[in-house]
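Protein in question quoted in full.
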Amino acid sequence: MWTVIYMATDKDAAQKAEQVLKSEGILVKTREAMRSKKHGCCIEILVPESEAQEAQKVILENNL
């Protein structure tokens, strides 16, 4: 099962988070969660549930 571990506010932030996680050997998927003209978009970063804790640690260590 895939778990959301991070919400990015733009594509650049999502790509950076995805690259950092992949460089640590963590499987990662992204999906657009919301899009509006007023607020832009929100992109979910998902990892397998079994890797969620490690992924959170990587996100925090890299100040994302």
